[in-house]
From TrEMBL:
InterPro entries xrefs: Ribosomal_mL54 (IPR013870)
UniProt name for this protein: Large ribosomal subunit protein mL54
Keywords: Mitochondrion, Ribonucleoprotein, Ribosomal protein, Transit peptide
Keyword Ribosomal protein annotated: yes
PANTHER family: 39S RIBOSOMAL PROTEIN L54, MITOCHONDRIAL, LARGE RIBOSOMAL SUBUNIT PROTEIN ML54
Superkingdom of this protein's organism: Eukaryota
Organism: Sinocyclocheilus anshuiensis
Principal localisation: mitochondrion
Pfam assignment, any one: Ribosomal_L37
Family from the record: Belongs to the mitochondrion-specific ribosomal protein mL54 family.
One GO molecular-function entry: structural constituent of ribosome
Length: 117
């Protein structure tokens, strides 16, 4: 830190403080904060008994995994695979029309991407 006192012709003095640049590049003059990710749990017993990463709060711990009977039936019927194509869906289903609209918007945006007003 460099401190310079300027004495202009006015009766008050002006003090200017210069801070040394701590980072190079785009963020000049800013102190770079280092963010570290969450710690990886490698304990096999804890991985089998707790839902690791579910607790989003700073305090507290991850919840315990309950028996299968305590969870609703629909939870185990969710489709976790890759999304289906338009020709794999039934034409009278809501998912079909949502995907059709989404693909139409994508196509429209691609076609109008290069056009100028």
């Amino acid at each position: 830190m460099k401190q310079v006192t300027l004495k202009p012709t006015a009766p008050c003095a002006v003090t200017v403080i210069y801070f040394k640049t701590l980072t190079k590049g785009k963020g000049k003059g800013m102190v770079k904060e280092v963010f570290k990710g969450p710690e990886v749990c490698k304990d096999p017993v804890r991985l089998c008994t707790h839902a690791i990463g579910v607790n989003i709060f700073k305090q507290g711990e991850d919840p315990l995994i309950k028996p299968k009977e305590d969870y609703p039936e629909w939870l185990f019927q969710l489709d976790l695979g890759p999304p289906k194509n338009l020709n794999e869906l039934q034409p009278d289903s809501r998912e079909y029309w949502k995907l059709l609209r989404k693909e139409h918007i994508w196509r429209h945006n691609k076609l109008h991407k290069g056009k100028k007003m």
